[in-house]
């Protein structure tokens, strides 16, 4: 069985408080974007895992795909599988690529082996693998809260807009990014702000990680300002970075500045 794990962007990210377990409560809006890895899982006589494409740091034995398989194996008699991952989503990019791979592994195994797990049950397995992971079970625009792994419906659509992703060739560790934030209760809930038209977001919707990361990596703010210069109606960092995205009213021909970076563009 083949799946195409996709990336996400965060529209707004307000980090509201540090939790007793060391994690942070936040509110954000997850929005899926069609930049995809490829994941194939087939039954085999022996479990194996092969990766191509972008190099993934760390021991392949700890890859989130294998961890997802092992987490289901605790509760189900799964046969060995041959897994193949072609990695295209940039890493340390705030695009949730590893989390998407893990969630798609759970979804594919559920289907392949008729495990009949509900959305809620799959989300429970996903939460144990990473905070972003549960989003990719439903994989549709959702408002999230608590650790970013509890969801509510939200009426946000970027249909017809062009999304530009810029990966500025630097990886940012999520744990390090969280270590330097100062949580703050927001005056207005992101949920309320997101109900206003996209044209109002520029002055209202923020990603709290920008405050601590922009001074350390000035290129991030430069990219954001260049996206506005190029005509974006809204631009922001996604998640804990390093990707900066721009939302445009139409497809855009970007100036030379962007040629030094990995740029991806799609009308959604
Ligand atoms: C920045 C976001 O991408 C926004 O969607 C996510 O919050 C990050 O989710 P993730 O990459 O799945 O993160 P996890 O693998 O769960 O956690 C990595 C590390 O980030 C920190 N972390 C993560 C999520 C959260 N709500 N609070 C945290 O403080 C913790 O130090 C944790 O050890
Ligand atoms: N299948 C995978 N794809 C990418 N990274 C993986 C994978 N499995 C494990 N990892 C580990 O997870 C780390 C980063 O994961 P990921 O790409 O999700 O982070 P990110 O781009 O910072 O996204 P986010 O912050 O939105 O969760 C890598 O350093 C890598 O070692």
Automatic annotation (TrEMBL):
Catalytic activity, EC: 2.7.1.148
Source species, domain of life: Bacteria
Active-site residue list: 8, 132
An annotated GO BP: terpenoid biosynthetic process
InterPro entries in the record: GHMP_kinase_C_dom, GHMP_kinase_C_sf, GHMP_kinase_N_dom, IspE, Ribosomal_Su5_D2-typ_SF, Ribsml_uS5_D2-typ_fold_subgr
Ranges for domain GHMP kinase N-terminal: 63-137
SUPFAM superfamilies: GHMP Kinase, C-terminal domain, Ribosomal protein S5 domain 2-like
Pathway: Isoprenoid biosynthesis; isopentenyl diphosphate biosynthesis via DXP pathway; isopentenyl diphosphate from 1-deoxy-D-xylulose 5-phosphate: step 3/6
Family: Belongs to the GHMP kinase family. IspE subfamily.
UniProt-recorded name of the protein: 4-diphosphocytidyl-2-C-methyl-D-erythritol kinase
Provenance organism: Larkinella punicea
Lineage: Bacteria, Pseudomonadati, Bacteroidota, Cytophagia, Cytophagales
Gene: ispE
